[in-house]
Write a structure and sequence with these properties.
The structure holds two protein chains of two kinds.
Chain A lengths: L2 E6 L2 E6 L4 H7 L10 E3 L4 E3 L8 E4 L6 E2 L10 E3 L3 H16 L15 H9 L18 E2 L3 E3 L9 H9 L6 E3 L6 E3 L16 H5 L5 E3 L3 H8 L5 E6 L20 H11 L3 E4 H24 L9 E2 L4 H10 L13 H17 L6 E7 L3 H5 L6 E2 L2 E2 L3 E4 H10 L21 H4 L6 H15 L17 E8 L2 E9 L1 H12 L7 E5 L18 H16 L10 H11 L5 H7 L14
Parallel strand pairs in A: 1-7, 13-14, 13-16, 15-22, 16-19, 21-22
Antiparallel strand pairs in A: 1-2, 3-4, 5-6, 5-7, 8-9, 9-12, 10-11, 17-18, 20-21
Helix pairs in contact in A: 2-3, 8-10, 8-14
Chain B lengths: L9 H13 L7 H12 L4 H11 L3 H10 L11 E6 L2 H5 L2 H12 L12 E6 L11 E3 L2 E3 L7 H6 L4
Parallel strand pairs in B: 1-2
Antiparallel strand pairs in B: 1-3, 3-4
Classes of the chains: A alpha/beta, B alpha+beta.
């Protein structure tokens, strides 16, 4: 490998040719501030438009300061990263950015997590020269069911654009207009809801400022909790427990299941339940559907379409409703765990309590922003009463816990309530890419073959590669499984399926890189993918620690079928636990 | 940006497809495709951009981004008499902005817009090479030199039947 030698802050270093000054400095432990730059190493994406100029450094012999994020190291280069000239330039850059940025930090949802605020603090900006003459570019706020765009706060770093186009291939966002009025927006500056946006929230996850944030439902949750006529249930998604601790200073990958249950009880939820229970239920329905389709296919039924696609991920559902609406009969008709939980809570559990459905309020805590949209879909309402009333993100739960003055870190572990809080290891791994299909295989194998699994762990289905495949031996019957996470990878896999080039029986797709643990509602990882890997490890640790690790062995799931549903895919199960999909967009008519 | 809702006829869609095809449906040729399409249709309404995006296999947001970046592209039909006020350096220092403001006031439109009757549209350009006549205004192909704000009404009157 060809290398170059240079000097940074009087220290010599040799780096591979093509290394940027920023990365070379970082390897020396020199911290250069960046704002627009984002390195998502494991996704093989680097956002470096060199637009903000916060990262400028002095290069001897060069007239102008160089943006270190996008300037390659050269032989003999002498770089200084914090001369007075550099600091002055960074301050000026920051002052210019702030001159066209709202100053409502106190009430900004990003306050405390804002990278712009952080750097302004670091640089000690105390006033913005010429502010009284400066004109501000203003745009109207865009409220969607999941995401709020407040583009007055956009600094044109274009990270969201990179996520939306390069990683997710959704194409909802692009830089539009020119100069002072330039901003990142959907086509024709329409509202996000009218764009192909899937509400995956990956744009929100990388936005350095308050330009893109989630719709905050915490106030509504507090209102429901203080209403004596309501019984308030909460369900928590698998991925939340693997990340929530980060908001309280715990190391990434710290599992906080017990503390979370304790905190939710302290906040005042009447029943602290677990979406993992509904994940087990999903496996019962989706697994049965898989085996049903498979059996019919093997018996030569030509009307059956394979592969079966998982349908737990609402952003993925939005994506295929828009981009693959010629294949709407391919995904499993099973509802997502969030919605299965809501449907069971407001029927089976409401009956048990002797309450009417509108006396119950179901709150979900999700690593996801698309879940906010999902629970508002019309097909998930009954007499205009939604199965899930409010969906809040992991970040919102952290705010809720903080506003209740709960010392989260010191909480003693507590357990979930019964019956909708009992879950197996199979339910837990829904949080990581590959987990849903692994959980499905654990159950489908035993149901199909009638034999106990030789081993519960299917490590061949795990990992961080964007597209993975494996063949599982169902006692002599080879089952081909595909896995994709990140919508760009999903698109590649689905294009192959559509073209008849891929021969899968079942495919799991998650919209977010890493699966739900990397969801748009999780604590911000600021592009550090080691955090996602740590969360993944936490998920599999939790699974390994469970006594019951297969969905069909969950005693409360068995009880639910015995007392209420009959059997998987029964008429009642169909009515409550399955859904259908809609065609969105009209792109195909123009080609 | 505001835009006019249009319904494309099948032959218009076919025309856009033909233009895209002549550039091999190559996304890298987006600007050329937009040029050619604007030449054909006179402007680039949203519906036209949607067809282009579908055929070049890129997002509509991206097409819109390019259309709004380059001032040559327009999403509004030009008026019957397109008015261009030169705001190049020479014209600017000799009062082009006041002339422009007067056109905006008299026609009651902003730069880039067209009067509701479709008669006049207003735009700016940079230098027509007649700096000696600054400030310069173009209406269609006709050049007006040494225009003062007071003269704007008379110029417009010439085009009102």
């Amino acid at each position: 490998m060809e290398t170059v030698k240079l000097t940074i802050d009087n220290r010599e270093i040799e780096v591979p040719k093509g290394t940027t000054i920023y990365k070379a400095a970082k390897s020396l432990g020199i911290d250069i501030p960046v704002l627009c730059y984002m390195d998502l190493h494991d996704l093989k994406v680097e956002n470096k438009p060199a637009g903000c100029r916060i990262c400028v450094v002095e290069v001897e012999g060069r007239r102008n300061l160089a943006p270190s994020c996008s300037t390659d190291c050269m032989n003999g280069m002498v770089v200084k990263t914090h001369t007075t000239r550099v600091i002055n330039a960074r301050r000026t850059v920051m002052e210019l950015i702030l001159s066209d940025h709202p100053k409502d930090c106190l009430t900004c949802p990003k306050s405390g997590h804002c990278e712009l605020q952080d750097i302004a603090v670091r640089l000690g900006i105390r006033e913005i020269p010429g502010q009284e003459f400066a004109e501000m570019s203003t745009y109207k706020k865009d409220f969607s069911p999941s995401i709020i765009r407040d583009v007055d706060k956009c600094i044109m770093c274009r990270r969201c654009e990179t996520m939306c186009n390069d990683i997710q291939t959704v194409g909802a966002l692009s830089a539009v207009n020119r100069g002072f009025m330039s901003v990142v927006a959907p086509a024709f500056e329409q509202d996000l809801e009218k764009s192909p946006c899937t509400f995956c929230g990956q744009c929100v996850a990388v936005c350095p400022t308050g330009a893109l944030t989630e719709v905050d439902h915490t106030a509504k949750v507090i209102r429901a909790l203080s209403d004596p006529t309501k019984t308030v249930l909460v369900q928590t998604a698998p991925a939340v427990r693997a990340a929530l601790g980060e908001e309280f200073g715990l190391k990434p990958g710290t599992s906080v299941t017990g503390k979370m249950a304790a905190a939710l009880r302290k906040i005042g939820f009447d029943f602290v339940f677990d979406t993992d229970f509904a994940a087990d239920l999903t496996i019962m329905e989706e697994g049965t559907e898989l085996l049903d389709r498979l059996t019919r296919h093997l018996n030569g039924d030509k009307s059956v379409r394979l592969p079966i696609l998982t349908s737990c991920c609402p952003a993925w559902v939005n994506f295929f409703e828009t981009n693959y609406n010629d294949m709407l009969d391919v995904p499993s008709s099973a509802k997502s765990p969030q919605q299965m939980f809501g449907a069971i809570a407001k029927s089976y559990f409401a009956e048990k309590l002797g309450k009417k459905r509108d006396e119950l309020v179901v709150v979900s805590v999700m690593p996801c922003l698309a879940k906010k949209y999902e629970c508002q879909r019309d097909e998930f309402k009954h007499d205009n009463n939604p199965d899930v009333d409010y969906s809040i993100s992991t970040r919102e739960l952290a705010h809720l816990i903080k506003s209740f003055n709960i010392n989260f870190v010191d909480l003693a572990d507590e357990d979930f309530d019964r019956p909708l809080g009992e879950s197996t290891g199979a339910g837990v791994i829904f949080g990581a890419t590959g987990g849903v299909i692994e959980a499905a295989v654990r159950t489908a194998y035993e149901v199909q073959t009638g034999k106990p699994l030789p081993k519960v762990d299917f490590t061949e289905l795990r990992g961080m590669d964007g597209i993975r495949s494996a063949t599982i031996d169902f006692n002599g019957l080879p089952i081909n499984i595909g896995i994709a996470h990140g919508l760009g990878n999903a698109r590649k896999l689905l294009d192959d399926v559509r073209a008849g080039k891929a021969n899968y029986h079942a495919i799991e797709i998650m919209a977010c890189p890493g699966g739900c643990i990397g969801g748009g509602g999780q604590p911000l990882h600021h592009g550090d993918s080691s955090i996602i890997k740590a969360r993944m490890a936490a998920i599999y640790r939790e699974d390994a620690g469970k006594t019951i690790r297969k969905s069909h062995e969950n005693p409360y799931i068995k009880q639910l079928y015995e007392e209420f549903l009959g059997k998987p895919m029964s008429e009642k199960a169909h009515h409550l636990l399955h859904t259908h999909y809609f065609k969105k967009g009209n792109k195909d008519i123009f080609i | 940006m505001s835009h006019i809702k249009v319904e494309l006829k099948p032959e218009q869609i076919a025309k856009i497809q033909e233009i895209c095809k002549s550039f091999k449906n190559d996304a890298g040729e987006l600007i050329n495709v937009l040029h050619k399409t604007q030449e054909t249709f006179g402007y680039l309404p949203a519906e036209v951009q949607e067809v282009i995006a579908a055929n070049l296999n890129i997002s509509v947001a991206k097409v819109y981004g390019v259309v709004t970046f380059y001032s040559f592209f327009t999403m509004l039909p030009k008026g019957k008499h397109p008015i261009s006020v030169c705001t190049g350096t020479a014209c600017y220092v000799r009062g082009a902005e006041k002339v422009l403001d007067e056109f905006k006031r008299v026609l009651n439109i902003k730069v880039g817009e067209t009067t509701p009757d479709g008669k006049f549209s207003l735009s700016c350009l940079r230098c027509v090479g007649a700096c000696g006549l600054a400030p310069v205004v173009l209406i269609g192909e006709k050049v007006y030199g040494r225009v003062s704000p007071d003269g704007v009404k008379d110029i417009i009157k010439e085009y009102e039947e």
